[in-house]
Amino acid sequence: MSNENILSIKNLNASFFTSAGEVQAVRDVSFEVKRGEILGIVGESGSGKSATMLSVMGLLGNSGKIKSGEIFFKGQDLSQNIKDLRGKNISMIFQDPMTSLNPVLTIGYQLKESLKHYKWQGDINARAIKMLERVGIVPAEKRIKQYPHEFSGGQRQRIMIAMSMMSEPELLIADEPTTALDVTVQAQILKLIKNLQTETGTSVILITHDLGVIAGYADRVLVMYGGKIMEEGTRREIFYNPAHPYTKGLLRSVPDPDKPRKRLIPIEGQPPNLLTPPKGCPYAERCPQALKECFEKIPVEKIFPDSETHKYFCWRECESC
Amino acid sequence: MLDVINLKKFFDTPAGKIHSVDGVSFHINRGETLGLVGESGCGKTTTGRTIIKLYEPDEGKIIFNGQDITRLPPDKMLGLRKKIQMIFQDPYASLNPRMTAGDIVREPLIIHGFPKKEQADRVDYLLNLVGLNSEQAGRYPHEFSGGQRQRIGIARALAVEPELIICDEPISALDVSIQAQIVNMLEDLQKNLGLTYLFIAHDLSMVKHISSRVAVMYLGKIVELAESEELYSRPLHPYTVSLLSSIPVPDPDKSDKLKNIPLAGEIPSALNPPSGCNFHTRCPKARQECKTLEAVLKDTGAGHLCSCPFI
Fold first, then answer.
1. Which residues of chain A lie closer than 8 angstroms to B267, CB-CB?
2. Which residue of A lies nearest to B184 if distances are taken between CA atoms?
3. Which H or E element spans position A12?
């Protein structure tokens, strides 16, 4: 991991405009991705983790819109350049390998399609076969002519990974890449992503709701809730020294299979409705330690003592500091 | 309370016969929770649905409270369903979007002939029991969050005072912070109402937390069954060992030390299950004999059952 920022997002605000009104999915989000790191983004549904990534990729669709903020990829403003970079320098894999592939085209066609657009210098067919072999789809020469339905779920996700790595991207965004897969297959796929990342030096943004996946594979972690970042730090900082009450609550609510069973400690209440986001901290409603100002003002960034990497957004002084 | 003996359920498809449940035997004691885990397609959901007779079993026996219910005639089914209820995985699909929460919970009361005068009170009581309030009875499913919908589904299951509840992945579709709420509630209800659960899930850490005993299924068969602590601390079957080693642990140091025992490939098709021990195609310890040896669940001591012939 180097200190060079490959992606830098500043004060991003993005909304979806629905029949019910404006859903403020991403609210004032800022962070960086460093070259060669795996940045994990953990959050529950509606936390804004996927919407942030769709903003980066320019894939918010007709109902979504970036309202303000900056997204820079290696110093270039992405709002101008995303169409030239998407699929080449930045690629993405999605949660559902069943619907991400076109069922009426061979996987070979789909693998090669991504490069045609960018006038790849070299033998596209050889590259496709090499990538298929790399992700463990063998014999690649034969399987490249097959259609998506001839592969299992895990194999399809491998094909998606091969496709995303065809152009040797510098940033790979993996949005819940293993959520639809079984646990033994999940382990295979995560290892594959990790190995490819080590071999090629690609930066990876790994989005998941599974704290175990984050603990095992991320270098740094962003914790998101209600469209905002709650806490940011290295994997060890987040798991061993969480500062934000939401991070603490999340870590407490999952059972530890290595410890004798005791009653779980849930986070009471429900996540906020982003049609009418709360005025203050989005977690204040559910936070057992909320102060009066938590309901009124959005918390400012605090730096954890003696750390350059650990930040959190909370009005309270954290007890573990 | 429940005895399942050599249960089999096949599905006929144009491609052939799918061996969904292929000789499953277990029992559940009154007041306990039996966890049933396995990956998709292993037959855990079909097992649950066959027990409640949503599917007709092809072979084997289901004995509930001493009564053989395997071939129960349709007119006796209503009485049985009062005793066995089910909670479903998807709180979005398992509630009728055109019915209010109150009507959804009331429906089983109507079906089972609960006195009309008492129905409204009972609906209020049930909604309160699952942490909702009476004012919410007039709302429709879309006005509730996922966790609240699952609460409605639980209230519906409890309406007719069942003894056994088949919980089919009741928390899989919920967010992490909400899962713990529902699991705690299920535990409280079990204690207060004396319920028995068959808890079907693929989240192994949650299953360990909630179950007294756990059965592990692979390709239509139970490969291992033991007390929950025992199974997790001393797994015997190579499949269980591998499955447990694949659970991502929310702890960086433990996670780094974790020795994941990878399984090659994916679950074979239940259309044409492998011969002998059906796990031999992926088993890291497979020997030549495994292709022919019948794998039968047997006691290795102290009620720890395992089907691997070499354990």
1. 182
2. A264
3. strand A5-18
pTM of the predicted protein model = 0.89
Taking contacts as CB-CB distances below 8 angstroms, the residues of chain B near A257 are 204-205, 208-209, 232, 247, 249
Dihedral of CA A311/A210/A193/A131: which sign? negative
- Please report, for residues A60, A169, A182, the alpha-carbon distance to residue A50 in angstroms, rounded to integers and kept in the order given: 10, 20, 22
Quick check: B248 and A184 CB within 8 A?
Answer: no
C-alpha to C-alpha distance for A317 and A244, rounded to whole angstroms: 9
Residues of chain B positioned with their CB less than 8 A from the CB of A189: none
Of A184, A239, A265, the CB nearest to B252: A239
CA–CA gap between residue B3 and residue A306 (Å, rounded): 60
- Nearest beta carbon to residue B260 from set A187, A210, A270: A187
Cβ <8 Å between A44 and B175: yes
Under 8 Å CB-to-CB from B115, ≥6 apart: which residues? Answer: none
- Evaluated on CA atoms A70, A76, A81, A82, the torsion sign reads negative
Of A216, A264, A270, the CB nearest to B248: A216
pLDDT tens column, A159-189: 999 999 998 999 999 999 988 788 888 888 8
CATH topology for A7-313?
Answer: Rossmann fold (3.40.50)
pLDDT digits (tens, 9 = 90+) for A246-285: 999 999 998 887 777 888 999 998 889 999 999 999 999 9
3-state percent breakdown (helix, strand, coil) of chain A, nearest 5: 35, 25, 40
Q: Which residues in chain A have their CB less than 8 angstroms from residue B149's CB?
A: none
DSSP secondary structure, B199-229, as one string: EEES-HHHHHHH-SEEEEEETTEEEEEEEHH
Q: Where are the domains of chain A?
A: 7-313
Domains of chain B with bracketed CATH: 2-232 (3.40.50.300)
